Amino acid sequence: MLKFCGVAGLGAVLGASAAGAQITVLRDVTVIDGEGGAPRHHAALVIDGGSIRAVTDTGAAVPKGATVLDMAGKTVMPEIINAHGHVGLLKGTKTASANYSKENEQRELMQYQDYGVGAVLVMGTDHDEAYGWRAESHAGTLPGALLYTAGKGFGAPQGMPPLAMGMDQVYRPATAEEARADVRELAKHKPDVVKMWVDDFYGQFTKMKPEVYTAIIDEAHKQHLRVASHLFHEEDAQQLVDAGLDIMAHSVRDQEIPDSLIAEMKQKHVTYIGTLSLDDFAVAYAGDPAWLNEPFFRDALEPGVFAMITDPKYKETQNASKATAAERAALPIALKNLKKVYDAGIPVALGTDSGATPIRPFGFAEHTELQLLVQAGLTPLQAITVGTKNGATLLRASSEFGMLKPGLKANFVVLDKDPSEDIRNTELIAAVWKDGKKMSDGPHAP
CB neighbours (10 Å) of residue 33? Predict the structure, then answer.
């Protein structure tokens, strides 16, 4: 027997579907598949258990016994993939090693999920417990966004990443020999990538030596691991690509990337993660951004953060900071380089660095990143592909999720309006689904 319901009755039917019927049809939706194609209007998304069975026309025959949900006016897109985040260290207004716990990790993964983020790659700030949590996440026993990890990253002695930010589990080799030994130790845990920091943060820290990062890359490749690097300067980017870097974990932000480096990046299959929102958040709170009082932003904040960022003394400090001035100059360069890299055909994935500091809130940052990708010159559909399919490809999981196509997991976000018309519509979350079941009504659920 077919069961039809209006959107108002969605929650009740979903509960029944999870317990009973194995086939669910979302009827009369607009489907954005994540592959870049035009939205498919008046479509039906057929879910069989935890996977997508078909995307058909609304008038197509419905499988016998299916639960049918009338969702006219809604749009469905794949969950967002954050290929550069930090989970477990943030609580309140501080990032600290003492905050790192399974409870905190799970809380933050759940918040990602509420905001439509289906997976996050933690870039080098995890403790050893994360390897077990990753296994639980992929087994379905740790709820929230799927967890991927670079484990312990690589920094310089007395350098980046700052110990003051709670990043005390990072390897800090002083020599190439130490670096190789550390990579071999890390490789035993099978991290998803290797993360390192190559930057001096506007001259404030000691930068990793070229012989050390070259050894990290070489040894990681011997262990069949890819390497991602924090960076800022074009000169460092050039040297890292020459050394075999696989993933730029941030934009080049001091100058335009030269055509010669673009060609080398493409030839060597380097993936580029822009983290444009990092630079945006770095300057936003010196003023009053348009979204400051919007619930979608406020609901993402840790306790105490709103009071912190709206304190006049905080704003004064931000406006007086040399780093803020540098970030103001960095963002336009980052936007230009992102578009140049994308137009060259170099793979671009979405990343935000959310969770590394309290001013980059989990979930909200990822939607801001989509908007900045459009500001950089991508179309909304191109930005969505960067934030879905491309992230899954970087995680080597594109055969599992990241697109809405038969055989892949039924992991998607239901939206009240079509984001191909306005990318800000990704914030209008009506529901989040994972493995064919509704997990959340979004961040504003009572």
Answer: 25
pLDDT of residue 13: 35
Domain count for the chain: 2
Candidates 21, 19, 15; CA nearest to 1 is: 21
Position 162 scores a pLDDT of 85
Lowest mean pLDDT: which of 20-29, 136-145, 388-397, 414-423? Answer: 20-29
Question: Are residue 109 and residue 26 in the same domain, yes or no?
Answer: no
- Residues shown for the chain: 446
Q: Domain range spanning residue 103? A: 80-394
* pLDDT value of position 446: 53
pLDDT surpassing 60 at residue 6: no
Same domain for 178 and 243, yes or no, is yes
Q: Are residues 33 and 141 in the same domain?
A: no
Q: Parallel, antiparallel, or unpaired for β 40-48 and 23-31?
A: antiparallel
What's phi and psi for 398, nearest 5 deg? -70, -10
Position 29 in a domain = yes
pLDDT, one tens digit per residue, over 100-120 is 999 999 999 999 999 999 999
- The predicted pLDDT at position 14 comes to 36
Confidence of residue 445 (pLDDT cuts 50, 70, 90): low
Rounded Cα gap, residues 388 and 370, in angstroms: 11
Residues 90 and 25 placed together within one structural domain of the fold: no
- What CATH number does residue 73 fall under? 2.30.40.10
8 Å CB contact between 401 and 434: no
Q: Environment class of residue 403 by beta-carbon count within 10 Å: exposed (0-12), middle (13-18) or buried (19+)? A: buried
State how far the Cα of 321 lies from the Cα of 313, in Å rounded to an integer: 12
Query: Are 383 and 419 members of one domain?
Result: no
What integer pLDDT is reported at residue 326 of this predicted model?
Answer: 84
Q: The CATH number of the domain where 381 resides is what?
A: 3.20.20.140
Residue 261 is assigned to a structural domain of this protein: yes
